[in-house]
Amino acid sequence: MAKVSVYNMQGAQVGEVELNDAIFGVELNEHLVKMVVVNQLANKRQGTQKAKTRSEVSGGGRKPWKQKGTGHARQGSTRSPQWTGGGVVFAPTPRDYSFKLNKKERRLALKSALTSRVNENKFIVLDELKLDEVKTKKFQEVLNNLKVNKALVVMNDNDQNVVLSARNIPTVATASVNTINVYDILKYDTVVATKAAVESIQEVYA
Prior knowledge:
It is a single chain. The protein is elongated. Helix 5 links the parallel strand 4 and strand 5 (172-176). It has helices spanning 21-24, 30-44, 103-119, 136-146, 160-166, 182-187, 195-204; strands spanning 2-7, 13-19, 123-126, 151-155, 172-176, 190-194. The protein starts with a strand and ends with a helix. The chain has a six-stranded mixed beta sheet, sandwiched between helices. It has seven helices and six strands; from the N terminus they run E-E-H-H-H-E-H-E-H-E-H-E-H.
């Protein structure tokens, strides 16, 4: 089992914790990780884009000029795509971009993402993360003590003081054990997790 250091909020090492190899030491599957990221981004798309084809644009029912003898190219409608105000060729229509992945695939991709962060020494464990009040400055001090900038902070419980304190920092996101996902783990440079959160992850995803 891999071991990582445990730090307190002042940035001092206070111990070590063993990580379950079934979650934090799996063989990396980059293809599966990419598929899950594509799946997440596709599922976020609204798919509401729409443009009118030549059959949907109003007007253009009359032939603009006779077929022959004008010196112009032949035209059948003023709503053809080459005309200003005409329809769009192969216009986009509302559609659903989402697709499904198997639960085992999503879970293995999540384990691969967590393993990659551990291998790159970008997985930091805190003994606890508690704030007495909502104060962004105090939360930023904790990050400075840990020497991290762009971080995903994973907590076991939804501590509103921590969530609200981190909300105004554009390079930080918070998540609970049941909301962590592959995209966020890869998007942020470092994963900062409380010791309780690590234990919960090992229980839920083992």
